TrEMBL record:
<keyword id="KW-0812">Transmembrane</keyword>
<feature type="transmembrane region" description="Helical">
    <location>
        <begin position="52"/>
        <end position="70"/>
    </location>
</feature>
<dbReference type="GO" id="GO:0005886">
    <property type="term" value="C:plasma membrane"/>
</dbReference>
<keyword id="KW-0472">Membrane</keyword>
<dbReference type="InterPro" id="IPR002810">
    <property type="entry name" value="NfeD-like_C"/>
</dbReference>
<dbReference type="Pfam" id="PF01957">
    <property type="entry name" value="NfeD"/>
</dbReference>
<dbReference type="InterPro" id="IPR012340">
    <property type="entry name" value="NA-bd_OB-fold"/>
</dbReference>
<feature type="domain" description="NfeD-like C-terminal">
    <location>
        <begin position="91"/>
        <end position="145"/>
    </location>
</feature>
<feature type="transmembrane region" description="Helical">
    <location>
        <begin position="12"/>
        <end position="40"/>
    </location>
</feature>
<protein>
    <recommendedName>
        <fullName>NfeD-like C-terminal domain-containing protein</fullName>
    </recommendedName>
</protein>
<keyword id="KW-1133">Transmembrane helix</keyword>
<dbReference type="InterPro" id="IPR052165">
    <property type="entry name" value="Membrane_assoc_protease"/>
</dbReference>
Length: 146
């Protein structure tokens, strides 16, 4: 009975539907491209009656090809974000005026950003003076007098 189910090409289409649902539940995971590969494999299996081992080879090749095509498509057609700096905390801070928490001496010091303290680099400045964030080198904020 189980062997008959495995030989039935309809399970490829069931897999495609499950992967499509997975893409809806967790968008942006490329499951839609693998679902496409499963659907095409199911169609080929229905039309040709290929053995199961060959179906898996075809599925693997189609997965690689469809994910490659999908990545290229996303590169050429990027999804526009309403907040492109959402996951770039430092980029969101550029232009913000902050207060020097520990004096900047020899180009190094610390500034208070919100409720946290960040290392910074800039011109020598006394504690309590306002400075503007102009960029970053790694996790070190670059500042200049405000």
């Amino acid at each position: 009975m189980v062997e008959h189910l495995i030989q039935n090409p309809w399970w490829w289409l069931g897999l495609a539907v499950l992967l499509g649902i997975g893409e809806i539940v967790t968008p942006g995971v490329f499951l839609i491209w693998i679902a496409l590969a499963a659907a095409i494999t199911g169609g080929i299996a229905m039309l040709t009656g290929l053995p199961l081992a060959l179906q898996f080879v075809i599925f693997a090749a189609l997965c690689l090809g469809s994910v490659w095509v999908g990545r290229r498509w996303y590169v050429e057609h990027p999804v526009e974000s309403q907040d492109p700096l959402l996951n770039d905390r430092i980029a969101r801070m550029i232009g913000e005026v902050v207060i020097v928490a520990e004096p900047i001496t020899h180009g190094r010091g610390r500034v208070r950003v919100g409720d946290s303290i960040w290392d910074c680099s800039g011109a020598d400045t006394q504690a309590g003076v306002a400075v503007r964030i102009t960029g970053a080198q790694g996790a070190i904020l670059l500042v200049e007098p405000a």
